[in-house]
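Page 47, continued from p. 46.
Same chain as before, 229 aa.
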Amino acid sequence: MAFRKIRHVGDADHRIVTAAVAAAEQHTSGEIVTIVSDMSDDYDDAALVWASVITFLALSVIAFMPDFYLGLLYGLFGGWDHDWTTSEYLALLFLFLGGKWLGSWALMQWTPLRLALTPKHIKMRRVRARAIELFRVGTESKTTGRTGVLLYLSMREHRAEIVADAAIAGKVAPEVWGDAMIALVDHVREGRPGEGMAEAVRQMGVVLAEHFPKGSENPNELPDRLIEI
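Result:
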């Protein structure tokens, strides 16, 4: 799956988030990784489904009002004097439905519309799946004590996820991160993604410091900087 390289946040946001990560890690052996993305999925399957649904609805309307559409057909092709065969009817019907499907699919290529028509639960699952995928590539088992945790923000879906390594997941229940998630999403909706991620990082740092306080040896094993993909 290909994702466009888009600048999601400004330089000031990068500095804010990077500083927040560095500050949070001063009090914990946990390592926080922050990633921001434009979208977590292209949702091309949603375009296919909606194009098919619209086409089926068009066929249903034709079946419900055949006389109306036959009148349009005769008007377009020279009146009632033409003797239409069954094959001609079917050919025109398939051409119409094919054009309806292609037109609907083309309309669904407009990303805001495709996102708006994708059910919320599907977007939630795709964002979560993308976060887990990125976590496995760049964070999982990358620290000595398996204390890495990923904060992932998907801008267009207004969704965020926290995925933690084994040691953290064994001590911190997922619902503990709830306040950090709420703070982040609220800031994103108000157009302040950098501040939202920084606040989420701060709250994550408090949780991590409680369960994984900083030890005498605490190497910085994962990048503090905000990563854009």
